[in-house]
Design a protein that fits this description.
The complex is a heterodimer of chains A (about 425) and B (about 450). With about 425 residues, chain A is mostly beta strands. In chain A, strands 1, 41, 42, 43 and 44 form a 5-stranded antiparallel β-sheet that branches. The relative contact order of chain A is 0.08. Chain B has about 450 residues and is of the alpha/beta class. Chain B has 3 domains: about 15-140, Orthogonal Bundle (Fumarate Reductase Iron-sulfur Protein, Chain B, domain 2); about 145-305, no CATH class; about 315-435, Rossmann fold, CATH 3.40.50. Chain B contains 21 helices and 10 strands. The longest helix of chain B has 17 residues, at about 245-260. Chain B is globular and about 70 Å long. Classes of the chains: A mainly beta (about 425), B alpha/beta (about 450). The structure holds iron/sulfur cluster (SF4) (3 copies). One iron/sulfur cluster binds next to helix 20 of chain B.
């Protein structure tokens, strides 16, 4: 399949040192050009363009899609290199992929998502004031009164919180009785609750877990087969562990946060805050963002506090594919930085960035690369080292399969650059 | 609940239905739980320190509006609610609770004006919010504000705005605003923008024109900005005012995570006072952020920056006489009244001060979630706002600038009820009217 090939980084051009695509000149051709996006392999750059009064198209490497639209937004490349957008024609919305529109037409479509390998594309949709999802142009058979918290799994299953009954204006009794359920591929999978948040799948996508509010004051965790017995003061996002056999979740008890597993205290220590649990299932590693003292943020991994603190926020925490690295994107004294954690040893990069993105990591975990903005200029950063050349804008970099080259994708003075930089040049 | 002026009992169905379900045991256990587990040294100090000296009384516009009737003084509100709960160890009647709801939810704007005049700095607003926390846990919160909080909990915004309605509204405003600039945009989810602009849900619901105006201002000022298509776009937070701290904390988390996901440098929020209090002070702290984790500035600060750096230029000053209402949450709460005056003077020819003003200004009378208690309480609210109406009238101004949504709605009610004949505007309305519709270029 085309997608598989594009996903395979060994087929990308890692030899040509530099390719350029002038993008500034698009502005002469169209009334206006919106913010561009670059393909994973860096070979393409695309933007929504205005071709005429209330007429839009997508321009990719200078070529426009044949079709034009009344409206278009959310343009993005998927991990497989396909280019998708939400588009409207004759006041009907759809998803358009590489210039081909889905057959499904909706009163509205939003929340465009790609699955991790790009094989599935989903959108939240509204048709005749009923709500659901559509995945690869197949729309849920049952639609609901409202939808939120959508999720698209790697295997193509879609889930969301749906409102199952109508509620009259200001009907607080109906609300308290529970109006919300979890729907998976359009089918209801849970009891009704007052609120539902943070749905996640297990790796088979047969099970879901989510946080629930049972009544005004009682929060808990539930799965598609039922809720935990305990009530808590509050609960954040759960995760599956042990190949779907168990669930962990941050819950609040007596004014403190605890990590619970299957309805019992797991880490047995209270925190001022505990959220963003992240799991690497095959190694059994579990980490979470924690605050032990009000206003200080840290990381707890397998119930051990790492030697790390920051005072503003930790916005992302995740494992590399093989769990050798744990990455934290954080802000300290109001500036962004990144910490790479290997065997519990934390190495902050010391970037002091104004904007910073989560890094990509090589398969052997030797290289982590990302982009940052500092003093209104964009830079490539590899293993904490800032590459000297600055740009007006930069896209997510990529690392070659042999971990010897970095693919830089950036714009400067109206020209899009695709550069393959050998590692020794950058480091 | 007795309306003292009319001797008519105000019926709030949410409160009545909740009260009917309560038992004495439940009442006592909830009150004692909150008093013992959720209040600290600060609370105890306040309760023990108050000398009943009455110096705070004249600070409260509700007290002044009710001909200085003693039961409306700040200290008396404490005495009639939380102090009684403490003294009776939670063994209070439903009738008592019914009055406590009226006092804490509709006769106190938690505006903190009284604290400025108390020799001990006793925070009456905090005590009233503790009463509201008890009310929340007893499930006897007034119906309309409870519905607003339910909306926050279910949708992430306060007015049951569905996600497609939100995005559709932005796209529609973008299209309309191309009247001003043909290539104007309201960029949705633009990753790496400098600024995320957030608003409160009444804007897309009833006042979409305000988004149009802001889009025009952003475009003319050549700002690299975005708005999120996802929840987190609404910065308001009524849960903070009903004592639903859990929902309040979630709202703050969603708002800041939306900004972090977009990798913006800062959040600019629209003209709202209580939302500022929520994102700048209350909601963020509940989840553990001592300060906003992403820099957050109120529209006043932002306009001040645009107007003093020449990013927005005034074509011709606004002619009508204007006065300015300082919203408590950004004036007493943040000191933005100086910048607000600088803006007025840049924009308007004829500025008339209101007295009292700046951090001493009276609350609009709608704040602290009072207006959100809805139609059942409008009559008493108008009575409680009499002093505010006098203050407004004294200015003689044609136009009243109120850089806060709640204030706006409350002041509109006052202007209508007391027939003041004033026009009420946001700063955004005036900027839009007087600005040059040209695009700022860096270096020019
Ligand atoms: S906080 Fe404001 S409304 Fe409440 S008692 Fe004090 S002055 Fe009056
Ligand atoms: S001024 Fe302070 S001490 Fe005096 S009555 Fe008011 S709250 Fe009590
Ligand atoms: S609505 Fe406005 S004036 Fe009124 S309490 Fe809020 S900020 Fe204060």
């Amino acid at each position: 399949m085309n997608d598989k090939i594009l996903n395979d980084k060994s087929t990308w051009d890692w030899q040509t040192p530099e390719k350029q695509i002038p993008v500034k000149e698009w502005e002469d051709e169209f009334n206006w050009v919106q913010e561009p996006c670059a393909s994973p392999d860096g070979e393409s750059i695309a933007a929504i363009v205005n071709v005429d009064d209330a007429e839009f198209s997508v321009c990719k490497n200078g070529e426009t899609w044949e079709e034009t639209f009344e409206k278009a937004w959310a343009l993005k490349f998927g991990p497989d290199g396909r280019l998708a957008a939400l588009t409207a024609s004759d006041e009907e919305w759809t998803v358009c992929v590489d210039g081909e529109c889905w057959e499904g037409r909706f009163d509205y479509a939003w929340d465009l998502k790609f699955s991790p390998d790009g094989s599935f594309i989903s959108a939240a949709i509204q048709q005749d004031s009923e709500y659901g999802m559509s995945v690869n142009d197949t729309t849920w058979e049952t639609l609901y009164k409202n939808i939120s918290g959508t999720l698209l799994g790697p295997l193509g299953n879609s889930a969301a919180v749906v409102q199952v009954d109508h509620m009259d204006q200001a009907d607080i009794e109906a609300f308290a009785a529970g109006l919300f359920c979890v729907a998976v591929n359009g089918e209801l999978q849970s009891e009704r609750y007052v609120n539902i948040e943070s749905i996640c799948f297990d790796s088979t996508e047969e099970k879901t877990a989510f946080s629930i509010r049972r009544s005004r004051l009682d929060y808990s965790i539930a799965t598609n087969s039922g809720p935990w017995k305990s009530n808590f003061q509050f609960a954040w996002e759960p995760c599956f562990i042990n190949h779907g056999a168990s669930i962990i979740a941050p819950v609040r008890q007596n004014g403190k946060w605890h990590l619970f597993k299957d309805d019992s205290d797991f880490w047995n220590r209270p925190f001022e805050q505990l959220w963003k649990p992240t799991v690497h299932d095959s190694t059994g590693k579990i980490a979470a963002v924690v605050s032990e003292t009000f206003g200080r943020w840290g990381i707890c991994e397998n119930n051990t506090l790492l030697n790390f603190q920051c005072n503003t926020m930790i916005s992302e925490l995740f494992y590399s594919d093989n769990a050798e690295l744990l990455i934290a994107l954080f802000k300290d004294n109001d500036l962004w930085d990144l910490a790479v954690i290997r065997n519990g040893n934390v190495t902050p990069w010391g970037l002091k960035a104004d904007k910073l993105w989560a890094p990509v990591i090589s398969a052997d975990t030797k290289i982590a690369a990302t982009r940052m903005e500092k003093n209104n200029r964009y830079y490539l950063v590899v293993n904490g080292k800032v590459y000297q050349n600055d740009f007006d804008m930069m896209f997510e970099p990529a690392i070659s399969p042999g971990s010897d080259k970095i693919l830089l994708k950036a714009i400067k003075n109206g020209i899009y650059y695709r550069q393959t930089l050998s590692l020794d040049k950058v480091l | 609940m007795q309306d003292v002026k009319t001797n008519k009992k105000v019926i709030d169905e949410g409160v009545e239905a909740g009260l009917a379900k309560l038992t004495p045991e439940k009442i006592a256990s909830v009150i004692n739980q909150v008093l013992e587990k959720e209040t600290g040294a600060r609370f105890k100090a306040y309760v023990q320190t108050c000398m009943r000296c009455g110096l705070c009384s004249d600070a409260c516009s509700v007290f002044l509006s009710n001909d200085r009737a003693p039961q409306y003084s700040p200290a008396a509100k404490v005495k009639q609610t939380i102090l009684e709960m403490i003294n009776k160890k939670g063994r209070v009647s439903r009738e008592f609770l019914s009055d406590a709801v009226r006092i804490a939810h509709t006769e106190c704007n938690v505006c903190k004006r009284c604290s400025m005049y108390c020799p001990f700095g006793i925070d009456i607003a905090y005590m009233m919010l503790t009463v509201r926390r008890i009310i929340h846990k007893l499930e006897i919160t007034p119906l309309y504000i409870q519905d607003t909080v339910n909306s926050h909990a279910a949708t992430g915004n306060q007015m049951w705005v569905k996600q497609d309605e939100w995005i559709d509204t932005l796209q529609w405003q973008e299209e309309d605003a191309r009247e001003e600039f043909e290539d104007l945009r309201i960029p949705l989810d633009k990753d790496g923008s400098d600024i995320m602009y957030s608003v409160i849900a009444p804007e897309p619901k009833f006042q979409a024109g305000l988004i149009y105006q802001m889009a025009t201002i952003m475009h003319a000022a050549n700002v690299n900005w975005t708005m999120p298509s996802t929840p987190g776009w609404d910065n308001s937070n009524m849960a903070m005012y009903t004592g639903d701290f859990e929902t309040s904390g979630r709202i703050a988390r969603i708002h800041y995570e939306a900004a972090a996901n977009l990798h913006v440098k800062k959040i600019v929020m629209g003209e709202c006072g209580h939302a500022f209090r929520s994102v700048y002070d209350v909601g963020n702290r509940w989840v553990g952020w001592t300060a906003p984790p992403i820099e957050l500035i109120h529209a006043i600060d932002f306009y001040h920056f645009l107007l003093t750096t020449g990013r927005i230029k005034v074509k011709e000053k606004y002619k009508k006489s204007v006065t300015l209402h300082d919203p408590c949450n950004i004036s007493r709460g943040r000191g933005l009244h100086h910048k607000a005056r600088e803006i007025v003077n840049i924009l308007c020819e004829n500025f008339i001060e209101m007295t009292p003003n700046k951090e001493h200004n009276y609350c609009c009378g709608a704040g602290g979630g009072v207006i959100n208690c809805g139609p059942p309480w409008k009559g008493t609210r108008m009575v409680n706002n009499k002093e505010k109406s006098r203050q407004l009238k004294r200015t003689g101004a044609q136009v009243l600038i109120a850089p806060c949504h709640n204030c706006h709605s409350g002041l509109e009610d006052i202007v209508e009820h007391y027939e003041l004949g004033m026009e009420i505007k946001f700063f955004g309305d005036i900027i839009f009217e007087v600005m040059e519709k040209t695009i700022f270029e860096e270096g020019n």
